[in-house]
Amino acid sequence: MLLLDKNKEPVNTVYYLAALIDGLLRNKEGLDYSELLKVARDSVTSDIKLLFFNLALDFLYLTGRITVDGRGKIYAHSLP
User: Fold this and answer.
1) What is the CATH number of the domain that holds 25?
2) Which regions of the chain does DSSP assign to beta strands (E)?
3) pTM, whole model, 2 decimals?
């Protein structure tokens, strides 16, 4: 499913945020949710909508790109 937003800002699209999150997690050794949100917000110039951030995390989780450990740390996985 493709989620389009009327504001047409790429920062507030699920695919853009998923790629951003994937890249951030590859450079870090596991981040919790709040740390990841802070790092993501610091790396873009406009504000990230929390709804799209959560949807991007869901997308990455469902596609097997990220996992969450028992402590809540989020890790990225490489493609097989």
Assistant:
1) 1.10.10.10
2) 66-68, 74-76
3) 0.84
**1 within some domain:** no
Does the pLDDT at position 26 exceed 80?
yes
The b/e string for 55-76 (b: 16+ C-beta within 10 A; e otherwise) is bbbebbeeeebbeeeeeebbeb
Calculate the alpha carbon distances from 79 to 2, 5, 39, 53, 64 in Å.
Answer: 22, 28, 23, 21, 9
User: What's the structural domain count of the chain?
Assistant: 1
* Residue 2, in any domain of the structure: no
Residue-wise pLDDT for 27-58, tens only, equals 888 899 999 999 999 999 888 889 999 999 99
* Amino acid identity for residue 78 in this structure: S
